[in-house]
Design brief:
The longest helix is centred in the first third of the chain and has 15 residues, at 75-89. With 289 residues, the protein is α+β, with helices and mostly antiparallel strands. The protein has two domains: 11-124, 2-Layer Sandwich (D-amino Acid Aminotransferase, Chain A, domain 1); 133-287, D-amino Acid Aminotransferase, Chain A, domain 2 (Alpha-Beta Barrel). The chain has helices spanning 31-35, 53-66, 75-89, 133-136, 164-175, 218-229, 274-287; strands at residues 11-14, 17-20, 38-46, 49-50, 94-102, 117-124, 138-147, 180-185, 190-193, 197-202, 205-209, 234-237, 249-254, 258-265, 268-269.
Length: 289
């Protein structure tokens, strides 16, 4: 499958039924288009099975609650929708996107309580998120934007509006020939990349930013479990940018990114070392088990 995302063969699940891909449309006065009232999940299927599928469905509902968008489908119903899409699409290894949003209705101001909440699920083939960086190591820029305080946004929701500064940061990074950008948080601590969490290695131990103002990714949690099973010490803590000079290895985690090594962040360089490769291989085995 390729080409523009609005002009493809296949089907998309929308509000309880499968519709032809090209007919999966919303009105221009949809509330989410104007005010960002939308939440979503990115998931990957391996060999026909969506990895930690139920965790993603539960998080979708939690994200909706966090931004006052009550999704009128249960976890079981969302799980069934995803299975229906996978079966109808004939896909085995796929990226799955579930998205819920406030649609068009009687309200078109900031308030939208009378507008229906809608839900869609689509699936498509999607290879390595960072291309050959998965083997060579990604180049990261330093973003000019910072992850904001949780007092200003629902930072633990996977909400569409929170990604605006991520898009801007990634565009700036790509213009410099980088794969992505590293973002600091509002206090100046290392936070995450635009769509992935970050890990560092020093003297055989792993350090990763404390997710107190950004999303604690499902892949991040999985990788921490894999590290602890190997007996590797994992320190979840605040990390200052000047500490990056002392780290030997670095990698990113995310559903799309999976486990991607990082070769450089701004002026700092990292090796694609043994632990990075071992964790990437362990993650690959786990998702395909």
């Amino acid at each position: 499958m390729g080409g523009a995302y609005d002009d493809r063969d296949g089907v998309i699940w929308m509000d309880g039924q499968l519709v032809p891909w090209r007919d999966a449309k919303v009105h221009v006065l949809t509330h989410a288009l104007h005010y960002g009232s939308s939440v979503f999940e990115g998931e990957r299927a391996y060999g026909g099975r969506i990895f930690r599928s139920r965790d993603h469905s539960e998080r979708l509902l939690a994200s909706g609650r966090a931004i006052d968008v009550t999704i009128p489908w249960s976890v079981d119903q969302i799980e069934a929708a995803k299975e229906q899409v996978m079966h109808a699409s004939g896909l085995s290894d796929a990226y799955v996107r579930a998205v819920a949003w406030r649609g068009s209705g009687e309200d078109m101001g900031v308030a939208s309580a009378r507008n229906p909440v809608r839900l869609a699920v689509a699936a498509w083939e999607w290879g390595a998120y960072y291309g050959d960086a998965k083997t060579k190591g990604a180049r990261l820029d330093l973003s000019a934007w910072r992850r904001p305080s949780p007092e200003t946004i629902p930072s633990h929701a996977k909400a569409a509006g929170l990604y605006m500064i991520c898009t801007m940061s990634k565009h700036a990074a790509e213009a410099k020939g980088c794969s992505d950008a590293l973002m600091l948080d509002y206090r100046g601590y290392v936070a995450e990349a635009t769509g992935a969490n970050v890990f560092f290695v020093r003297d055989g131990e792993v350090h990763t930013p404390l997710p107190d103002c950004f999303l604690n990714g499902i892949t991040r949690q999985t990788v921490i479990e894999l590290l602890k099973e190997r007996g590797v010490s994992v320190h979840e803590r605040h990390i200052m940018p000047e500490e990056l000079e002392g780290f030997e290895q670095c990698w990113l985690t995310g559903t799309a990114a999976e486990v991607t090594p990082v070769g450089e962040i701004g002026p700092w360089r990292f090796e694609v070392g043994a632990l990075t490769r071992e964790i990437a291989e362990s993650y690959e085995r786990l998702v395909r088990a």
